[in-house]
Each structure stands twice: as C-alpha cells, then as structure tokens.
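FYI - complex with adenosine-5'-diphosphate, inputs then prediction.
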Amino acid sequence: SNTLYLRVRIGDIGDDLYAIFINDMSEQRRFEAVRRDFVTNVSHELKTPAGAIALLAETVTDAADDPDAVRYFSGRISKESARLTELVHHLIDLQKAQSPQSVIDARRISALDVARAAIAANQTQADSRHVDIRLSVNGQSVPTKVEEPADGEGSLEESGSPATNGPMIKADKEAMQTAVKNLVENAIHYSPEHTTVAVGVGERDGKVTIRVVDQGIGIPAKSLDRIFERFYRVDPARSRETGGSGLGLAITKHCVQENGGRISVWSRTGEGSTFTIELPAAPDEDDDEARSDEST
Ligand code: ADP
C-alpha cells in the first residue's frame, strides 16, 4: 500500500526551543514486510517436503511386505529429501550473495573456466535426462571438459592455465560459477529429454558474454520480468514435481550484479530460453589469477 508511516518526536533542545523530528517509516515497514514474507515463504517451502517425507515414511512402513511399493516410496522419499537439500543449499547461496558483508574476491578469471565448472556441476543431471551440453567460444565449438594429459605428466592445473583460455573477466570466481551453474541447471530442468543446451562464451566490444540457450518449455512473456524474484515460479505445480527452490535466478541475478554485470533473458514458450550474462572484459595487463590466495 502507499501508506506513509511517520514517526514524530518532539525534543526539548533547551532555551525554550523545541524541534520536531520526523522519520519516514515507510521504507522500514516495507523492509519488514519483505522479510516477513521471506520467512513465511521459506517455512512453507521447508514444510512441504518435510511433511511429504513424514507421510511417505509412514506409508513405506505400512507397505513393508510389498517390495515394489517399498522401492517406489523410498524413491519418493529420496526425491523429497533431495529437494530439501537443494533448498537449503540455495538459501545458503542467497544469503552469501545478499550479505552486505559478503566479500567479492574480484580477480582476473577465465569466463571459459567458469562455464566449464558450471557444466561439470550439472553433467550428471544432464546425462540422466539425455540432455547434450555443448560449449563454444566466440562461436567455435570447444570441449566441455579439459582433456586429462594422456601420459600422466602432471595435470593442466599444475602446469598453469593454457595460454589461450578465452575471454577474461574480473569477477569473483565462486559467485560467477554459482550464477552460471544455476542457469545450466534450469536449462536442463525445463527442457525435454534428448535436447541440447548450448553454453556460449563470447567477447565483443569490451564486453564478455556467457550465454545459456535451451530448447525447453520457454517462459511466457508476462512472467519474464518476474522470474528473478525470490520464490517466483511460472508453474508452481511443475516446479514442485521437478524440485526447484524458486531461488536459483534470484541468486544468479545477485551474483552477476555484485560483479558489475547484467543479466537478460529471451524466451518463447515451446521454443526455449536464452539467458545472457554480460560483464566488462578484463584488461589483460595484471594477472590476478596467479596471485597467491594469502594476498589481500
Ligand atoms: P526454480 O528453482 O523453480 O527453477 P528459479 O529461480 O531458478 O527457480 O527460476 C524461477 C522460475 O523461472 C522457474 O520456476 C521456472 O518457471 C522459470 N524458469 C527458469 N529458467 C527457465 C528455463 N530455462 N526455461 C523455462 N523456465 C525457466
């Protein structure tokens, strides 16, 4: 509502002089309301799988004589507990991203490494859904994984980053990996089996882009500017089934903005979605990545 909350205090400042202090409380009220909503949402999100697990555990006990039923209900228990775990992880990520004390460890890092780490974190899920993840740099296809040296003569990591490591950005590695990981996770999540998710890293006009393109269900136009809100879901029933926390994109947006970047989305229902992160390219003089972890 547009109610204006004012706190008025009359103070005696001596010598028959009085002052009236007026505080606009509406901002604080709004903040409190947002916080209350958040706690309500979190409680609800935790209660649903927790309640389901309790119920399913009871059912599995009753069905102890029927191996098929036991298998089925145990599977559902696993699914619900995975959902709880995901929600807790996302809450921690969100807390990290939003904390005013959060330290942004901005270093010169490879956007390609970020993309590869985000893909690696989702590879198992992609395989299980037969979703093919592809990676490209400036339109050129590259492997999603860095090849292990065949002769075992030390890993690439030990010998340092290869000279051609694609576009570089100045950003917090962990935050950027979290941001891209969530986009890839969603791309797989909201796509039918046997489709392709294309991750593209590019550099142009002093800007580095990390793009995640899927051939999934897409997002209705009217929802496009709401999907970055905490707990907003286009289809809550579907999300419940596939187990999303509703926090992924809120986390991603925070991580990107904290690192001086922007995120945008294009989508058409039934065709797919494209999420694009854009960050300033890092000038190539100082190589922060080589700096030791102890330095500040
Ligand atoms: P969730 O955990 O539900 O996926 P997110 O914050 O990551 O939460 O996303 C919010 C909502 O945006 C999702 O519930 C889904 O409706 C929609 N969404 C996000 N990414 C995609 C995508 N790649 N394709 C289709 N819908 C998406």
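The mean pLDDT is 86. Helices lie at 26-62, 67-98, 111-128, 173-189, 236-242, 248-258.
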